[in-house]
Amino acid sequence: MEFEVSIRPNAEKPLLEGSGTLGDITVIMGRPRTGKSLFLRYLFALFSEDYELAMRTSEQILDNGGWAKLRVGNILLSCSKSDGDEVGCDITPHPREEAYLFYEGVLFTLKYRLMSPESAEVTNAMARLLERIARYREGRWRYDVAYSYGDKKFYERVDGRQIDLAFASAAVVTVGVLERAFLLDAWLLLDGTLDELFPEEVFYLAGRASSARARLVVATHSPWVRRVFRCHRSVAEAQGMPAADKSAMAYEFVDGTVREIDLASETYGKAFGRLYEVCE
């Protein structure tokens, strides 16, 4: 599915412009403040027709005369700020895609049920996600996470005991939810969600992603995350998991542009190069 993005806080100041293809798995890298989180927020707003998120995001980043445009396939999201300081957004009417935004701080939602203040739809979507994965009670999971319909909470089951997710490790919560969410016919937009995980956990999730129904868009600062998801098929086979012929794309947002990358990244290579120069 092709995409085209143009985000200009004002007419003379491009933040991000370019185009590419959203694969079954898409990895996005880049320095801080290059537009990765913005891209995911506008992408969620486009799929979900979430005018509230599109408006609130645009109010924060746009100056008078600025705009944010994102086209995915034949669906266009367009926001602009007039000289009168008014923000307007339009989204091409379309059948809504099921999408879930794993925003920064989503761990607090999963552990403590503290919801995002960004938009009601982001909050409602996360609530729907938890309800949908609650039915996946049995199976070959990395972590035994179960839902109690009595008190409407998730628990980790360990040695016959139920541990409230508020007391579970971050890896149990993140991996336990994602490995079940991979079974949904939906878009999973992960904004740095995998960056703090132990590498072996990311290796496991990349293997599961190879046969997932869900389509993934992963924003990350981790070269490890990019590499294992680009090589998802081999990663799955190495773990004895089903492997599918899924398309995997990777992009770097750099200097206001969208650049396709493979297993190497110029920006990250420079960063590691500096380390090797100063640390013998």
Tell me what the structure shows.
This protein is of the alpha/beta class and 280 residues long. The chain contains nine helices and 14 strands. The strands form three sheets. It has a six-stranded mixed β-sheet with strand order 7-11-12-3-13-14, sandwiched between helices. A five-stranded antiparallel β-sheet has the order 2-1-4-5-6, with helices on one face. A hairpin with a 2-residue loop joins β4 and β5. α5 runs parallel beside α6 and α6 crosses α8. The radius of gyration is 19 Å and the shape is globular. The protein starts with a strand and ends with a helix.
Give the helix/strand class. Answer: alpha/beta
| Oligomer status | single chain
The amount of helix comes to 25-40%
The largest pleated sheet is described as: 6 strands, mixed
Q: Tell me, briefly, the overall form.
A: globular
The number of helical segments is 9
Q: Detail the poorly predicted runs.
A: none
End-to-end Cα distance, whole Å, is: 45 Å
Give the helices and strands as they follow along the chain.
EEEHHEEEEHHEEEHEHEHHEEH
Task: Estimate the mean pLDDT confidence.
Answer: 90
Strand order of the largest sheet: 7-11-12-3-13-14
**Binned strand content:** 25-35%
Radius of gyration: 19 Å
β-strand number: 14
Summarize the structure.
This protein is of the alpha/beta class. It is built from 9 helices and 14 strands.
Keyword list:
280 residues, alpha/beta, 34% helix
Give the SSE layout.
Layout: E1 2-8, E2 16-21, E3 25-30, H1 36-48, H2 51-61, E4 67-72, E5 75-81, E6 87-91, E7 99-102, H3 106-112, H4 120-133, E8 145-148, E9 153-158, E10 161-164, H5 170-181, E11 187-191, H6 199-209, E12 215-219, H7 223-230, H8 232-238, E13 248-254, E14 257-260, H9 266-278
Parallel strand pairs: 3-12, 3-13, 7-11, 11-12
Antiparallel strand pairs: 1-2, 1-4, 4-5, 5-6, 8-9, 9-10, 13-14
Helix pairs in contact: 1-2, 5-6, 6-7, 6-8
